[in-house]
Structure formats: C-alpha cells, structure tokens
C-alpha cells in the first residue's frame, strides 16, 4: 500500500470531516457536552489529528507507529485524566465512521474496496496506540501518586500538617468519613513498593481509605473509614513484615494523626520487650514499656489512669499498694490490713473499675505498679 493516495474528498476535506465528527460527538455523547471549552478543544485536536494521520498513514503505512502516536501527542497529557479510555475509543469510532461514510459516497467501487480495508487496519492501529497512551498515563499517575503519598506520610510523621498536605490527601482519594487509625510495623522482606501496593489493594478490597509509606525502616499505614478497628487492624496486619505491628487508638480526624504517629512509632521501638504481645497490639497496651523507655506521655497517662484516681480513694490506694508490693494474695493482704479477705476482694474489684486494670492479672498488675511508682515520684517532686 506504499505511496498510495486518497481521493480528494478525503485529503482536501480534513477540516470538514473533523467538524462532522465533532458535531456527531456533541449529539451522541453526554460526556462530551459536559466538557469545558478547553477540554473540548483538546478533543477536537485529537479528532483532526486522527483524520490527518489516516491520510498520512495511507500513503506511508511503514511509518504506522510514528503516525498513530502523533494522534495523541497533539493533545496535552491532562486529556488522559479528563477523558477515559472508553470515551477515547468512542471518539475514534466516531472519526472512523465519518471517514467510512465519506468512502461510501465515492462512486468508483474499485476504489472503495481497498479504502474500506485500509480503514479497518487503521482503526486497529489507532486502538493499540490509544491503549498504549492510557497504559503509560496510568503508570505515570501511579508513580506520581506513590511519590505524593510518601510526602504525605513524612509530613504526618513530622507534624507538618498544613493546607498543602491536606490538599494532597484529598488528591489521593481520602473520603474523610468515619474514624481514623494508624498501623506501624516492619515492611515485608523484598521490594518495598510491592509491599505498599499489596497493602493498598487489601484496603481497597475492604472498602477503607489508606495512605501508606515507608518511613525509615517502618511501614506506616493511615487508615480511614474505620468502623470496626480491631477487625481492620487484624486484616491489614498480615500484610506487614515479621515482628510487632502497632495499632493506634481510634482517632477522630486527620488532625490527630501527627501525635498518634509519634506515639505509634515509639510503641513500635519497645514492643519487642513484651514477647507475648498480640499482633497487632494497641499503643495503650504498651504503656508500661513506653514509660520505662522514657516516654513522658506514657508516664503521664499511667499517672492519670492509675495513681490519680487511687489517690482520691485512700483505702483503695492502700489496698493496691499492699496487694501489689507487699503481699500479693487475698489472705496476706487481708492480714496486713486487718480486714476480711472478702473486703480485699471487693476493693480489688473497685480498683479494676476505677483504673481499668485488674490487680490479679499479671500484665495489669505490672501497669498498676508502674502507675503508682511514677505517681509517687511526681508527687515527691512537686
């Protein structure tokens, strides 16, 4: 088909054919009518380029890739974000239909036959070219989104929460619905980006929002639209690497993420000191380890939840101190305090209700003893 020429009804009427295609799109496609003036001009550029490329391709079929690629290079890259692949296929089909109608109007049947075959081949080539454009756009968009996501995660960890960060969050598709939680742990062994993509797909499958990235050697996930925190934490924890996975307390919104991120990261550094910790483990369950590691917020929280309420109830404070630090049995505590064992049992239940920690449970007793100790230190220094 080399060096063949098209009839003048096509070669000299590319402008008219473009206008005809544009008018047909306007009458048939609601999405085209809803486009702005700038976007419609882009589509018109592609339509004209598509018809011009057919003329050039018919004369030089050996340059098929170069010619078909030029159809979409005539429009800005933003067109791939505004017009979907399906809509682009509809655009190309409209152009082909207009050209075919022009061919059918040619009187010479011997000329029409090769032109019909040429249109079929050209439509195939242009379809491949369109698919390639959108595949590259999707790949570039994915890489760009990953970079933006990494910047957002770093900003949350640093506490640099400004309008620019929030705009980037919205651009990543964050819905701002439901409560928020954080998960932190080691990334899986292997390619980091692959691990993040697996986590994103898991979040999408469960209908939750996710912003994730690797900060240093920690994979951090900011999760939105959380209804059942324990369930979501378990579902996503399996996609982290070996070792502890830390879950934050429920957060009301993104404004609370920076503080929660610091707490979650601190908890991760001490989680290995509790070998029997569940996976995932909530930050508040690691208050004792965090406090011992010098986390002032954890120390203050233990004082507030343990020492302060018990200090307001002297008999309970005395019972807790005796049971935990002198004689950790009901009978021994009763003898030390000169009360009945049932009274000790009753007071221990009151302590549990007041603090949320049970003196008879080893893990809770650990937190209670630390809360009492830090409270006394604070009291003696004040």
TrEMBL record:
Gene3D superfamilies: PucR C-terminal helix-turn-helix domain (1.10.10.2840). Residues 159-270 form the CdaR GGDEF-like domain. Pfam families: GGDEF_2, HTH_30. Residues 316-372 form the PucR C-terminal helix-turn-helix domain. Belongs to the CdaR family. This is Unannotated protein. It comes from freshwater metagenome.
